[in-house]
Amino acid sequence: MTTMPNRSAMTTMPNRSLHLVARLTMAAAMFVGCGTDNTNPYGGTVDTARNDAAPGPGPGPVSPSADAGPRPASDAAPGIDPAPTADAAGSPSMPGPTPPAPGQTPIPARFIVLGDSITACSNVGNENGANCSAKKLFDYLKATYAPALTYENGAVGAAVTADVPEEQLGGVTTGPGHALVLIYIGGNDLARYLFSSDAAAERGYNTDLAGIRSNWDAIFAFFQDKTKFPDGTTVLMNNQYNPFDGCTAPPYFLSAKKNELLDQFNQELAAIAAAKGGQLTDQHTPYLGHGHHYAVRNCPHYQEGMTPWMDDLIHPNAAGHDGLFQQWKAKVDGLYR
After folding, report:
1. CB–CB of 279/108 below 8 Å?
2. Which of 334, 294, 313, 337 is nearest to 117 (CA)?
3. Do the Cβ atoms of 42 and 70 come closer than 8 Å?
4. pLDDT digits over 281-333, tens only?
5. pTM (global) more than 0.70
6. Spatial separation of the C-alpha atoms in residues 246 and 288, rounded to whole Å
7. Closest by Cα among 103, 59, 78, 82 to 253
8. Which one, of 292, 318, 271, lies nearest residue 65 by Cα?
9. Cα separation of 212 and 189, whole Å?
10. CA distance 207 to 45
11. Nearest CA to 156 among 273, 265, 20?
12. Residues in CB range of 233: below 8 A, 6 or more apart
């Protein structure tokens, strides 16, 4: 999460409208929230009761979270038929797909995407756009591993973690077929503390953490319910990237405390993935040096010739979405090869 060090009052952003996209209209910086509308360039579905998605300076240095989470045990791959048997006329039936080897993740029949505007791809068209990282992952999975794969994207701009179990799960189609579930969420949970003091931000984060854990409990309970998903699911989580490269160069001066809170949040996501059997993709480390300070030589992750990945203050451009896709591609290759 990020800060505005010279302001001590938390700011809330009004207006809760879905899927609207606008360019940067404020000279403020923010955390890692997402979603857009005309009054708040990052908060298309701002919940004023929760003070979601306020703009402010970007997150500070975050130690890379390790790619965590044990591979969930396989249940049954979608479409697996019993061993070939003879039909009534005595002719052998055609065999079904080869079952996965013990410990191998089942090939998915369905790809379900949830989360905020990063996976809703609000700023690069929509969830079906050619530059949408989630759609690129679907296309890759379908072409490489799962030719019958279906795509279902229920991500909503400015969503917070609570919105996934409270709103987005209700739109998920349950039923047979192993599902790969991609969930990118969390930045807007932290954005509510952008303009608060460090002490207030730390108190708020510690207070909210129990709810965030409970929301993830509900998410995993839903997707691990065999009455809903008899062929099982694989849940792909992500930590939060840093739009400002972990650098305190102007104009995004970040407090050490709020940098620390972002670090803690990414560590918390890794712990949840490990405890629940999720798969965590590290989207933080590969993004460093591609954010707003990619060309600032005195920043810690500066490298000559780096490509900028930011479209506005918080959302990735087409190259940034491709960067996210490349990490997911490496993750699924590790699961299915």
Report:
1. no
2. 313
3. no
4. 999 999 999 998 999 999 999 999 999 999 998 899 999 999 999 999 999 99
5. yes
6. 7
7. 59
8. 271
9. 8
10. 23
11. 20
12. 178, 179, 180, 181, 223, 224
Angle between helices 318-336 and 133-144 (to 10 degrees): 30
φ, ψ for residue 92, nearest 5 deg: -70, 140
Bridge partner residues of 86 (DSSP): 92
pLDDT tens sequence across 134-176: 999 999 999 999 999 999 999 999 999 999 999 999 999 999 9
Q: Cβ contacts of residue 277 below 8 Å, gap of 6+?
A: 69, 70, 71, 72, 73, 220, 224, 235
For residues 242 and 58, is the Cβ–Cβ distance under 8 A?
A: yes
Which DSSP string corresponds to 101-170?
Answer: PTTPPPPPSEEEEEESHHHHTGGGS-TTSTT-HHHHHHHHHHHHT-TT-EEEE---TT--TTHIIIIIGG
If one compares 248 and 133, the residue with the highest pLDDT of the two is 133
Q: Is-contact 234 77, C-beta < 8 A?
A: no
Residues 243, 291: contact at Cβ < 8 Å? yes
Look up tokens 């890794």; give the residue.
270
H/E/C letters for each residue in 215-234? HHHHHHHHHCCCCCCCCCEE
Name all domains of the chain by residue range, CATH numbers in brackets.
Answer: 110-187+209-247+276-336 (3.40.50.1110)
pLDDT of residue 183: 98
The pLDDT, as a whole number, for residue 188 is: 87
Q: Coil, strand or helix: which one is 4?
A: coil
Average pLDDT, the chain: 77
